[in-house]
Structure formats: C-alpha cells, structure tokens
C-alpha cells in the first residue's frame, strides 16, 4: 500500500501500529454492537490485554447471553420481514407478533430474585442463634432454588423466540 518504505517492518513503527490496532478494535466494537448488542470481546487484547478487559469480556458475555435468549426475538423478526422470509397477510387480522404472556413470565423471576436476595441477607445478618440463621437460609435458599427449577422446567415460555418465521418453515 506504500505505507512503509522498502525494508521497514511494521513492528518498528510503534505509532502506526497503535493507530492501526485501535482502528481495528473500534471497528470490531461497532460491528459487534450492531450484531450482538454489546462491544466486541477481547478488544483489549488487540490493544493491550488487562485484567479489567478480562472482567469486561465476562460482563459482555453475560449481557450477550441475556439479550440472545430473552430480548432479541424482535430483531430476528425484523430481519425476516426485511429479507422477505415472512410476508404480511393482509387478510389475517391478528398479528403473529402479539402473544400474551402468562402470569409466570413476570412473577417467577421476581420471586426468585427476592428469595435469593433474602437468602444472602440472612447469611450476612445472622440471627440470634446459628439454628435460626440456618433455618432462614434454608427456607429462602429452597424458595430461590424451587423457583429456579420451575423457570428451567418452563424455559421455552421465558425465551424471546422469533414469532414470524417458524423453524419448520425454514427447513
């Protein structure tokens, strides 16, 4: 490209290397935000790997997991509509996008978070005796574990799956 003279090596050009790596990482972040909803993973590795970058990669992975499973169905529906994988039927009055959520969709996660929080609070604020503390921790721990088990059993109700194009139709 004529950026370097004959015989020059990229490793010798520290300023250019830094600018190039930052541009590369910034582009990766922009693409990842559009596609996955978070910044790219390991961009600090491109720049210079740090412990904070490792923690942020873990955080971004958790956010991606949540978005992918619980809040990205509408994006796939929009892509399917845009690409023509779904065509709107003007005769059909009901929208396939409007699906009523069951009571457990909101209630169970709230119960689980409250029960888990109470379990932690009971651990941190011990009662008068260890048996009292143990009883509270066991009660709230079993309540949080029980609601978690119910959520896992009814997992498909909690996932935000695309509604316009069904998998059978895609095959």
Automatic annotation (TrEMBL):
GO terms for biological process: phosphatidylinositol dephosphorylation. The chain crosses the membrane at residues 105-127, 133-153. GO terms for molecular function: phosphatidylinositol-4-phosphate phosphatase activity. Keywords: Membrane, Transmembrane, Transmembrane helix. GO terms for cellular component: endoplasmic reticulum. This is SAC1 phosphatase.
């Amino acid at each position: 490209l004529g950026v370097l003279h004959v015989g020059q090596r990229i490793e010798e050009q520290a300023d250019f290397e830094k600018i190039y790596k930052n541009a590369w990482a910034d582009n990766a972040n922009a693409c990842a935000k559009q596609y996955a909803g978070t910044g790219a993973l390991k961009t600090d590795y491109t720049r210079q790997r740090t412990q904070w970058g490792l923690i942020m990669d873990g955080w971004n992975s958790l956010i991606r997991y949540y978005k992918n499973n619980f809040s990205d169905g509408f994006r796939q529906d929009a892509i399917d509509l845009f690409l023509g994988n779904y065509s709107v039927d003007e005769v059909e009055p009901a929208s396939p996008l409007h699906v009523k959520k069951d009571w457990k969709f909101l209630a169970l996660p709230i119960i689980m978070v409250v029960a888990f929080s109470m379990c932690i609070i009971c651990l941190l604020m011990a009662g008068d005796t260890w048996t009292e503390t143990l009883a509270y921790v066991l009660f709230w721990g079993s309540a949080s574990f029980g609601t978690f088990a119910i959520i896992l059993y009814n997992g498909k109700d909690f996932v935000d799956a695309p509604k316009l194009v069904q998998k059978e139709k895609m095959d």
